[in-house]
Amino acid sequence: MGRRSFIKSVSLAGGGLIIGFNWLACQGPTEEGGKELAMQMPEEWFELNGYLKIGDNGIVTIYSPNPEIGQNVKTSMPMIVAEELDVDWNNVVVEQAPLNTEVFTRQLAGGSQSIRQGWQSLRTAGATARQMLLTAAAKQWEVPVSELSVENGIISHKNSDRTIGYGEIAKAAVNVEIPEVVELKNIDSFKIIGTSRKNVDAKKIVTGQPLFGIDTFKEGMLIAMIVQPPAFGMEFKTMDAAKAKGMPGIKDVFTIDTYPDDMEKEWSDVAAFSKLVVVVGESTWQVMQAKKEVKVEWDLNPKLVKQIEILEKSAGMDGVSGLESTSIYMTLMSDVGSKKSEIVRRDGNPEKAFENAARVIERSYTCPFLSHNCMEPMNFFADVSGGKAELLGPIQTPEFAEKSVNKRLGLDLENIDIQMTRMGGGFGRRLYGHFLVEAAVISEKMGTPIKLVYSREDDMTNGVYRPAYHVTYRAALDANNKLTAFHVNAGGIPESPLFANRFPAGAIENYLAESWSMESNISTGAFRAPRSNFIAGAEQSFLDELSEEMDQDPIQFRLDLLDRAGKNPVGEENDYDAARYAGVLKLARDKSGWNNNTGLSRGVAAYYCHNSYVAQILDLSVKNNQPSVDKVTCAVDCGIVVNPDAAKNMVEGGTIDGIGHALYSEMTFKDGVPQQSNFDTYRLIRHKEAPKTIDVHFIENGIDPTGLGEPPFPPIQGALANALYKATGKRFYDQPFISHMQDDLKT
Amino acid sequence: MAEFSININGEKHNVNVDPSTPLLWVLRDHLKMVGTKYGCGIAQCGACTVHFNGTAVRSCQLPISAAIDNKITTIEGLSEHGDHPVQKAWLEHDVPQCGYCQAGQIMTASALLKQNPNPSDKDIDNAMSGNICRCGTYIRIKAAIKTASDSQL
C-alpha cells in the first residue's frame, strides 16, 4: 500500500487502524497489495460491544484483549470472536486492546490461560453481536429472526431473496437490546476455528515496522537507563555524577526508589533492586556512555546479607561471605534443604513399604537459576504529568501494573492509561512490571516523557530468575521387581517445584510427597511453565531409569501406571486425566514408530501442566560429546486447536526452548555477582543446535481448548536426558547437561 | 559530535552524532528506523543485522564514522513492498513467534542467499547460528530460507 492510502486510513479511522492496515497488507504479500487496495476503509464504525466494531462497509475490527508475547493470541483470540460472529476472516482487522477492566477480564499473559479462560467470553462476544445484527435485520424486514441465516457477514432471509451485509445493518444493531442469553455454535460447524490463519502482525514484523515497546518514539521523549548494584545483597550508598552530568546530551543523573518499604505491593512488584541510579539523556548511545562515568559507591545491604549468613552457617560453611555464590547452592540443597521438608501428600504406608523393599532406587536432580533473556530487553515508555500517566510498552500484567502505579505515584486508576505493545518475548519475565513503575517514577521526576531502556547487561543481571531446584526420588521395589512405593522430596531456592497431586500420584499404592524451600536474596519468579520446567524433566528421567531397572518398556511402564490411575485411582485428589495422559503417549508412540530401530538414541517423556498434555519422543546422536538432535515427535492434547499451524509453531518453539535450556543455559553467581551478563557468557540454543525435524500431532477430541505456551517446554527436558543416556550410557542429573558432557571430555 | 552523511536504503541522511555512535543507534534513535533491533550490543545475537555493501554485518559494532561512503541496507529497504523472496517465504511459513529477532534473521538470510543461492543445510546452519531466536523458530527459518532459495532459481 502506498503512503497516500496509508494516511487515508489513519485520517478516517484514527490511529488504531494503522494496525489494521498492516494486517490487511499481510494477507496479500504476493499480490503486490492488491487486496487491501480494493478494500475501502469504512466511513463510520459501529461498536456492538467492547470486543468489536463493525464498519459501514462490513469491515470488522476485533480487539485482542490479552498481551501478545509471541504465543500468538493476537491472532487466535480474534479468530474465536470472528467464528461466532460469522464473518469472513479476510474482512477482519485486529487491534490490540488497551487495558480496560470494565470490558475485559484477565488481560494477562501467563499460565497458558488466555485461550482457555477467554474461550467462553470471546465466543459470547461474537455470538452476542451476531444476534444483535440478526435482530436488527429481522426488525427491518419484519420477519422472525428464526427465518434468517448468516454466512460470511451477509444475512439472508430464506423465504425471500433478501440479503443484507453486517455493514449495512450495523447502525440499526447498535440500538438493539443486548441479549442476555445467546446460543453458541455447535463445534462441528466451525469455519475459522480449526483452520490455520497467519499471524496478524507478520507483514509488519518482516518489514521492520514499529511494533515493539522499544520502538516507541514520541516528541520530546528522553531516554533513561539504570545503573544498578554489581551484586545481589548490595545497595546504593553514594555517588559522584559530576562527570556524567557534563557529558553531551545528558540531562540528569539521580536515584530512585521504585518500591519504598512502606508501599503496599502487588504480587507482581518484584525487582532485583529497588534503589537505582538513573541516567537520562537525549539518545541511547549517549546515555550508555554516561552510565560508565557515574562513580557509585555500593554497600552491603545488611538485611539481605543476613539471610545468606544464616544459610551458610546452617550448611556448616567456614568463611561466611554473606553474599550468595552458586557453589554453595549444591551443598545447601542436598545437605540442608531436605532436612527441612514437610509432608504434602501421603497415600498408604510408604514408610513401611520402603522398609520392606527388596531394593530401593534413589536419584537426585538439580537445575540452576535461569535468566529469561527476552530478545527485547526490558523497557517502557512513560509520560507522567498533570496527575495523569500514559504508559506504553511490553507488560504481561497490565492490570497489576496499573495498581502498582496507583499506589506508587498516588494517581487515580482512571488517570492511568496502559497500552500494550507486542512483546519481544515474555517467558514470565514481564509479569514483574518493576520497569513500568521505574519508568513512571522517572518520568514524573523529569517532568517529561521518557523511554526507559535496559541494556542487555542490565536485563540479564537485573533478573527475576527461574529458581534453582533440587529433587530426590526414591522408589521401592519388591522381590518380584514390582513397584511398591514412591517418594518425592523436592525443594529449591526459594520455592519447591513439587506438584504433589500430579502423576504418578494416584497410580501408586504407597506414595509420599515432601516439600521444602529456603530463602535467597536473588530475585526469582515465574519462568515459562513455573516449577514444571524442572520437575517434569526430573520425574520423567527417574521414571525412565526406574522402567529400565524393572526391565520394562518406558512407554508401557507409564501406560500401566496410568491405567491404574484411571481405573482405580489412589487418593482423592489427582490433578490429571489418566486417559488423556495415556492418549498422548500412545499417539507419540505410534507416530514415532517407537518400536522401529532408527539407529539413533531415543528418549521419551510425557507431562501434564497448564491444563494440556504433551508427550515427546526425541531421537539424537552424540559425536565428540556434542549432541545432535535429529527428530522430535510431539503428541499434544490441548482440546480444540484454534489455529493449527500457529499451535504447531508454538510446540516446535517450546520443544527447542526446552532442549536449549536443559542442555546449555545457566545463571550463576559469585559473592552475589552475576557471572553471566550477555550472550557471550550465557549460552542459548542456536540454529545449528536445533533439531532437524519436529513432528507435531494433536489429539482431536472436541474438548474446550487449553493453552500451549508452556506445556511443550517441560517434558522435552526429560526426553532429552533419556536419549542422552541411550547415546552415552550415562545418566544426566544436573542441568545444564552439556557441562557434564564436557566433564567427560576433560577426564 | 560531528556531521555525517550516510547512505541508507539508497537515500542520503545527515546526522550530527559522536563519531563512536554505532550505526544501530543512529538508525533507531536519530533516523527513527526501528526495524533494526537492539539485542545484545556485542555482536552475539544478530538482531541488529544490516547489509553493508551487500554483506551482513552487526550494526551494533559499526561506528557511524565507518559507515560513510558505503551502501547500507536495512530491513526497511530490503524491498519496496515487503516482497523480497525471503520476506515472502517468511510469511508463507508464518515463521515469527514474538517476532523481535526476525528482521535480523531475514537480513542474514537474504545476504546468505545473495552470496550462495543454493545453500545446503550446513551452509544455513553456519550462516544463521549468529542469530539467536529466543522463541525457537529455527526449523521454520530454515524451511523459509529453502523456499526463498527455490524461488530465486
From TrEMBL, chain A:
Alphabetized GO MF terms: oxidoreductase activity
Classification via SUPFAM superfamilies: CO dehydrogenase molybdoprotein N-domain-like, Molybdenum cofactor-binding domain
Domain Aldehyde oxidase/xanthine dehydrogenase a/b hammerhead positions: 207-302
InterPro entries documented for this protein: Ald_Oxase/Xan_DH_a/b, Ald_Oxase/Xan_DH_a/b_sf, AldOxase/xan_DH_MoCoBD1, AldOxase/xan_DH_MoCoBD2, AldOxase/xan_DH_Mopterin-bd_sf, N-heterocyclic_Hydroxylase, OxRdtase_Mopterin-bd_su_IorB
Organism this protein belongs to: Gelidibacter algens
Protein name: Isoquinoline 1-oxidoreductase beta subunit
TrEMBL record, chain B:
GO molecular function, one term: oxidoreductase activity
Alphabetized Gene3D superfamilies for the sequence: 3.10.20.30, [2Fe-2S]-binding domain
Coiled-coil intervals, chain numbering: none
Lineage of the species this protein comes from: Bacteria, Pseudomonadati, Bacteroidota, Flavobacteriia, Flavobacteriales
Protein name as annotated: Isoquinoline 1-oxidoreductase alpha subunit
UniProt cross-references to PANTHER family, sorted A to Z: BLR6218 PROTEIN, OXIDOREDUCTASE WITH IRON-SULFUR SUBUNIT
Keyword field: 2Fe-2S, Iron, Iron-sulfur, Metal-binding, Oxidoreductase
InterPro entries in UniProt: 2Fe-2S-bd, 2Fe-2S-bd_dom_sf, 2Fe-2S_ferredoxin-like_sf, 2Fe-2S_ferredoxin-type, 2Fe2S_fd_BS, Beta-grasp_dom_sf, Diverse_Oxidoreductases
Organism: Gelidibacter algens
Pfam families assigned: Fer2, Fer2_2
Domain 2Fe-2S ferredoxin-type residue range list: 2-78
